Amino acid sequence: MDRRLELSNIEVLQTLGTGSFGRVRLCRVRSTGDYAALKILKKSDILKMKQVDHVISEFSILRTIRHPFLVNLIGFTQDDRYLYLALEFVAGGELFSYLRTIGKLDNNHARLYAAQITTMFEYMHAQNIIYRDLKPENLLIGHDGYLKLTDFGFAKVVEGRTYTLCGTPEYLAPEILLNKGHGKPVDWWTLGIIIYEMLAGIDPFTDEEPMAIYQKILKGKVKFPRNFDKNAKSLVKHLLVADLSKRYGNLKNGVNDIKNHRWFSGLDWLRLLAKGIDMPYRPTVRSPDDTSNFSRYPDSPNLSPIVRASDDPFLDW
């Protein structure tokens, strides 16, 4: 269960990543000796950028989700200037960094990662949560080689459609760009993008200019490298479909059209969920506080250890 943390019980260590209104730092919970990733959000920036709803949504979703491939919320607190979310520390670093190092994945490796992402979305969609921000930067690799999805800033509980424009340019589904209202199918579109990226080493609609990316997405023409696995190509084509009545994941069989696709034939989904399949890559993790798989960041000034006396960090705004 997540719980209220005391800042005096947290030793804040080096930076693991930075975002638009905060950063993530490694921390140690003094009373237990456990390490966590502390997401530090600056209240003034959240208000200035009109992100209050997104932050409240992220917090409430993190409190409810429990899945082997989703990052766990350990605790939370706040002081006068910051909100703090303590999350499970996943020491293997980002899939983004790993892909940048090796270029692209072999077919089986991409297939195992894609299967894990499929189960993440299956679980979230069953709770009417859409994620909306799948990209290699938001997939962390555990010491066991399995993925953990992080950063639920754009995730939202939606039963029908929503109209907020959010996401990363290369990954935006056509219905988001056209502002038609969107729902769960946007996540299946992003699965198609990431399968292509893992196997080709680049995303399918890549360009220097966001407007050119958007035009390519709306045209919907995907060129595949010659050595792209034919079964993976078939699944990607079924996912990168602008017509929602034809996009896999959104048909009457739901996620089963994806799980039963021939690219995944022979995969034991229950064994995968139980982490019973050896992953092709296990990152080197030398200790519970090993941050060598993350980029180095210049340090920021120490945070003020003032703890507000509220029971819930989101109720007294």
From TrEMBL:
<dbReference type="GO" id="GO:0005524">
    <property type="term" value="F:ATP binding"/>
</dbReference>
<keyword id="KW-0808">Transferase</keyword>
<keyword id="KW-0067">ATP-binding</keyword>
<keyword id="KW-0723">Serine/threonine-protein kinase</keyword>
<feature type="binding site">
    <location>
        <position position="39"/>
    </location>
    <ligand>
        <name>ATP</name>
    </ligand>
</feature>
<dbReference type="InterPro" id="IPR000719">
    <property type="entry name" value="Prot_kinase_dom"/>
</dbReference>
<dbReference type="InterPro" id="IPR000961">
    <property type="entry name" value="AGC-kinase_C"/>
</dbReference>
<protein>
    <recommendedName>
        <fullName>cAMP-dependent protein kinase catalytic subunit</fullName>
    </recommendedName>
</protein>
<dbReference type="GO" id="GO:0009653">
    <property type="term" value="P:anatomical structure morphogenesis"/>
</dbReference>
<feature type="domain" description="AGC-kinase C-terminal">
    <location>
        <begin position="265"/>
        <end position="317"/>
    </location>
</feature>
<dbReference type="InterPro" id="IPR017441">
    <property type="entry name" value="Protein_kinase_ATP_BS"/>
</dbReference>
<dbReference type="GO" id="GO:0005952">
    <property type="term" value="C:cAMP-dependent protein kinase complex"/>
</dbReference>
<dbReference type="InterPro" id="IPR011009">
    <property type="entry name" value="Kinase-like_dom_sf"/>
</dbReference>
<keyword id="KW-0418">Kinase</keyword>
<feature type="domain" description="Protein kinase">
    <location>
        <begin position="10"/>
        <end position="264"/>
    </location>
</feature>
<dbReference type="Pfam" id="PF00069">
    <property type="entry name" value="Pkinase"/>
</dbReference>
<comment type="similarity">
    <text>Belongs to the protein kinase superfamily.</text>
</comment>
<dbReference type="GO" id="GO:0004691">
    <property type="term" value="F:cAMP-dependent protein kinase activity"/>
</dbReference>
<keyword id="KW-0547">Nucleotide-binding</keyword>
<dbReference type="InterPro" id="IPR008271">
    <property type="entry name" value="Ser/Thr_kinase_AS"/>
</dbReference>
